[in-house]
Amino acid sequence: MAPAPSEPRPPVEPYKVKVVERIRLPSREEREAALRAAGYNLFQIRSDDVYIDLLTDSGTSAMSDRQWAAMMIGDESYAGSRNFAHFEETVRTLTGFPHIIPTHQGRAAENLLFSLVGRPGTVIPNNMHFDTTRAHVERNGSKAVNLAIPEAYDLQSPHPFKGNVDVPKLEELLRGGPALVPVVMVTLTNNTGGGQPVSVANITAVHAACRAAGVPLYLDMCRWAENAFFVREREGGMRDLSIPEIGRRFFDLADGATMSAKKDGLVNIGGFVATRDTALAARLKEQLIIFEGFPTYGGLARRDLEAASVGLREACELDYLEHRIGQVRYLAACLDADGIPFVHPPGGHGIYLDVARFLPHLPASELPGQSLVVELYREGAIRTVEVGAVMFGDAEPGGPPPLELVRLAIPRRVYTSAHLGYVADVVRRVWNRRTSIRGVRMVEAPERLRHFLAKFQPMA
User: pTM here?
Assistant: First the structure.
């Protein structure tokens, strides 16, 4: 039955289903037991106990028939694999970077880069660092600084490019030159701030500031195709360009990039670091051999490189991106219909619930974001992730982080509109009983990236 005119219209999938995976809705008793066993940390819950998994969009994509077929031509040679040659050609064509160093995922690329450029007494700015990026920056002695524009912190602002860098603040920081700032990073799209895009005009200004200071500019390009889709839609003069053409508007202004291909590469594992700097590339390869593997496989099965080559191209297809962004917008429309607060405009890879407006009765000390994550699982076996005081609280010595969000990250080509309708219904039910939700407290946590392994208990 077609939806009534007043109801949100789901996007039509540009694919048909060939293989299915069975999922099961665990009972409420099973969900309660799973929460207790996991220490109320959804990273510790078994996937068999999850009905709709929105924990992350990283490595959770459904691969296409073309990708599965590509895996059958894997050349598992230790050195000089033809699959690396295909992968290298694909990345060079998309980005223009001459040196392509494969890794098993994005954080491995971050480890390689920041272990070489990071050092005590330096600062590495970004629009907003995400969790592993910040951890690698700080593990190597540098200080991670967020420089997103003020609109990024106004969750209801209609600004079309809330991922933009605050260029005047960047220019002020860059007065210290390369001795203070060894590299500038910009994340496309801005994951921490709600999956918000960065404009070409903003990258152009960042590039100019970096050039004037003699500081290299690197991109975290894991969601670059989604970012390019927003640029095509929202930025003047871009409508007639293809996604790869818009991508080159970014990449041609940068000195290099890191990428988790587990996002816009549409694969379950893989990534790379790319650079124009020949001397740095040689050092990166030395590090790669120590930590990841030979430079023509980088810790991956060579068949995975072939699948990534195909996925990187598929992620540029407009019908795919229209559906991908359309799913996020469909879920947003469903939540908007009930007045449920989230980051506006909706971003590229998920919905970010505005916890401060969702649970205003819970103080920061009671970890409201983690409390909401627990309730969404308790209500409907939906797994989400907190992006706030748990994930970043240890990085904000002056108090809780400025944003307290819960991310509903939508895997690529995995769930149907009916699944998203179920998600909206579960969020609605939690919203309707929000005043009864109790906080949680952290009872155990590691030193770094504590949200992965921490344990919690409900407040009495």
Answer: 0.94
